[in-house]
Sequence to fold (487 residues):
Amino acid sequence: MADPKGFLTVGRELPQRRPVDVRIKSWTEVYENFGTDRLEKQASRCMDCGIPFCHQGCPLGNLIPEWNDLVYRKDWQEAIERLHATNNFPEFTGRLCPAPCESACVLGINQDPVAIKRVEVEIIDRAWAEGWVHPRPPAVKTGKRVAVVGSGPAGLAAAQQLTRAGHDVKVYERADRVGGLLRYGIPEFKMEKRHLDRRIAQMRAEGTDFKTSVNVGVDITADELRAGHDAVVLAGGATVWRDLPIPGRELRGVHQAMEYLPLANKVQEGDTDTPAITAAGKHVVVIGGGDTGADCIGTALRQGAASVTQLEIMPRPPQARPDTQPWPTYPMLFKMESAHEELADAGGDRLYAVNTVEFLGDDDGNVRALKIVEVGGPETGFKPVEGTERELPAQLVTLAMGFLGPQKDGLLDQLGVELDQRGNVVRDREYHTTVPGVFAAGDMGRGQSLIVWAIAEGRAAAHGVDSYLAGHSALPYPIPPTARPIA
Ligand SMILES: Cc1cc2nc3c(=O)[nH]c(=O)nc-3n(C[C@H](O)[C@H](O)[C@H](O)COP(=O)(O)OP(=O)(O)OC[C@H]3O[C@@H](n4cnc5c(N)ncnc54)[C@H](O)[C@@H]3O)c2cc1C
Ligand code: SF4
Fold:
């Protein structure tokens, strides 16, 4: 145990975000440096619980009390070994995870939980800075060939595990760069892409082969893919977005979030100076109150939007845990992400319990406003409140309303894998689909989810593939596909 009295004497502390007026002018990450001494104090708050509920909360089964103790004892090199034992990419989760481990932390019952996510990111950032992270190519090759379709966190985790197990792994990605939503969904200010590039360089050095701009199911058929490989991992994500088919949807200026965000990321990659869709000088409305919506807000404000408003059909969530969502569940609370702070500073609104009934256009076919109405809660079927209809000016609208599941036409249809009632790919305990030698991991199998789940599933699917190819596997098996967060 780090410090038996740490949780009594030290309060939870996180790094400051840079001042809004400064960070809004740049695309770099928003947090200031924290400092080693303060971080070691934060690690000392861990009680090394007999039953560490943080393990239960983390889909990867991260050995949290162990690395808290190691950080407190200044053994950072051993800490990264423990962290890498369960997580291929802690620099992604340490920056982007909503941290179900912290919601499950025992200290959270009557105090602020341990700052687990901050300890995680500081361990891996320090490890890179000190030169402790090296390629780990396999000692022995198996001669077996594995195709991974999709290079998001699930595909990358599966590929790294399988390459290290000695297989020849080829990752096929239809985009022009590797990374999935880490590359073209998540904005630079949440995670700078240098973190992704550094990992991909490590993976290439280990022997993983990447083929970009290859749409499997179009450029190569499923039969060709299977014929050329001993096993296939499907990690194509849940890319079919939910639309809003109301009058005026066809107007220019109404876009899906995933049409808008990748263009901003391409500017950061240096592909172009001006994105084809920009918020500059426009009144922007973001429909959808989740993470994707927050990413649209931060992006629009950095592009120089005249105003930004976020709409959410659900009622405003509570500030603190309601009785219906007790510890250690992951509660649905009112969040103040960095983008929300920026929105508040810019005088923008977050409107709850409102629905959009129509997009209104000008004579040239451009959107000029939304017709919105206040609605009752889900128990009323979101019944409109009479007399509350009004117009909200907008020249750019982004739809951030979630995703319906994986794309069926093309690869999945050609393979003939069974889908469940929600349209996701069915897997058994070894992540094997109903087609022999074809496995599935990440959002393609779970539906829209989180990076931490994608990494956990990629690792577990790699175990399944390795067992299938070799008859047994020494790779870890973090989680069965049916596992759900504590809720
Ligand atoms: C805007 C946005 C922000 C998000 N922010 C967060 C966050 O902060 N924290 C968090 O935990 N989660 C976040 N998420 C969710 C998270 O990004 C996903 O759950 C995660 O990326 C899923 O990983 P994946 O590997 O399954 O799929 P993806 O990351 O979607 O990757 C799938 C890849 O497969 C490729 N592909 C698909 N079909 C084919 C094919 N036929 N041939 C070749 N390639 C193919 C796609 O081009 C894509 O690159 C966010 C999601 C979005 C949309
Ligand atoms: S639940 Fe919290 S206090 Fe207990 S071991 Fe995990 S991080 Fe430490």
The chain has a mean pLDDT of 96. Residues 96-97, 149-155, 172-175, 180-181, 185-186, 215-217, 235-237, 239, 258, 261, 291-292, 295, 410-411, 442-444, 449-452, 454 surround flavin-adenine dinucleotide (ligand 1) (CB under 6 Å). Residues 467 and 473 are 5 Å apart (CA to CA).
